[in-house]
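[Automated response] Your request has been received and processed.

Submitted sequence:
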Amino acid sequence: MRGTPRSPHSRGRTSWKDTRLRAGVRWHHLLAVLTLLPALMVGMPAAAKNHPPPPPPKVQPALANAVNQSPNSSFRVIVKRHNGDTGADADVANAGGQKIEDIAAGGFVANIQGQDISDLAQDSSIDYLSIDAPMQATAALNSSMVDQALKDPSELQTMYPETIGASQDWAQGITGNGVTVAVIDTGVTSVLDFTSGPGKPSRLVAQQSFNSQTSTTDGCGHGTHVAGIISGDSYYGAGPVQGKYVGVAPDSDLINLRVADNTGTVYLSDVVNA
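Generated structure:
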């Protein structure tokens, strides 16, 4: 019919203005996607292959790191049983591990291949796996240092008691009487400083070794030194040092628990046992 604004032949066609408008909309959509994509990629986690897997929750992180570096190595490990379940012992043995000894607190020590530790951590009979780390003394006195310290013992006799305030406790009658202190160290050598006078019994009331050394006598010197700081009383000693050195609690008793050898070397499991 005449008078219609569009001819039937124009149906389905678009003008060049419509085409440009729609193209502009598509470009705006594409631009928005391109702008958003980098932000989304920043928030995405990095590929797992670039990071080592997290350690199982029942494996000490230090042990897990060591295993990741040397999976084919054997590790001396403390195995904590779950509620004393000895099935842990059997599972370690089945995995090729070699049990060394039982220790206190429901655990045992074993040599285990690194590649087997993650699997053992899944065992319900095992609470925790940690390195049985060798421990070393952090410092040692040599003879020249000892000689220097003994040049003026009258000055040293009041140094640490005053520093930590022990003399204030002594003034109130607090000297350690009735208290027993365990010294877990290289052993303690029984000397007059640990008695209440000549002919009196030693204040070392109990002694035991927790390593391959059968003797509880100090072969290093460190343990006796520590015991002296705690409970020494050189009033009953002899020679030029008599009465010059007093421990923090000079009336206390001592328990000598030797865990270290003559070089000061000790395993963590020995300390746990003590």
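Summary generated for your ticket: The mean pLDDT is 75. The radius of gyration is 37 Å.
If you did not submit this request, please reply to this message.
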